[in-house]
Amino acid sequence: MPEKILIVEDEQTLQETLAYNLTRQGYEVETAGDGIKALDLARKIHPDLIILDIMLPGIDGFEVCRILRQEMTTPVLMLTARDDEIDRVVGLEVGADDYLTKPFSMRELLARVKAMLRRVRLMREEFSQTTGEVSTPSQLLTFGNLVVDITRREVRLNDQVIPLKPKEYELLLFLAQHRGQVLSREFILERVWGWDYIGDSRTVDVHVRWLREKIEDHPAQPVRIVTVRGAGYRFEG
């Protein structure tokens, strides 16, 4: 089945251009011109990726992203009309995975979309290879009171959904799929963030700390995500 992309853009010409080019690439595309419709569609179709403009009528992109992050972990590529560091920082803080500043080339947008979707597919494939099973709507990774739902991209602790940012979810899933293995920071960075990510291994440390605060009973003395001194991290479950 083709991957589904939701485009949220109120500028009609740009919306149609994006939809046309993404459809030509083989994706199934839905569009929304405002924040309310975007939320309704996201809940209805459960897209594989959301392209989200910041400047929207009614509810802006920041608020849409914040609400979505409470309900799902679908990757979000945020579009901004201003080359403003504050916009980028706020976008990432509310849960966006990546951003593009207008005007941008269609080639760059398509490359970002492919990279983001490739990382999602890679994680699903690694799960299948690790377990020998194909991910289905009922497929779960269970570690005591911690449950990772592969298809719903959802994590539950004591039967309560934990709000995770996309990269937090992807990191946890990657660690869980390699339970008991010592993984270096560089390896984690390459597989979760992508080989073309511009950053260093401290990004991994920061996200591990955030995860521990959400899934560990005592974050300062973690028993699920364990630090292996001089080597990296090991997930114990």
Automatic annotation (TrEMBL):
The modification 4-aspartylphosphate is found at D53. It comes from Bellilinea caldifistulae. Residues 4-117 form the Response regulatory domain. It comes from the Bacteria. This is XRE family transcriptional regulator. One of its GO terms (molecular function) is phosphorelay response regulator activity. SUPFAM superfamilies: C-terminal effector domain of the bipartite response regulators (SSF46894), CheY-like (SSF52172). The lineage of its organism: Bacteria, Bacillati, Chloroflexota, Anaerolineae, Anaerolineales. Transmembrane segments: none annotated.
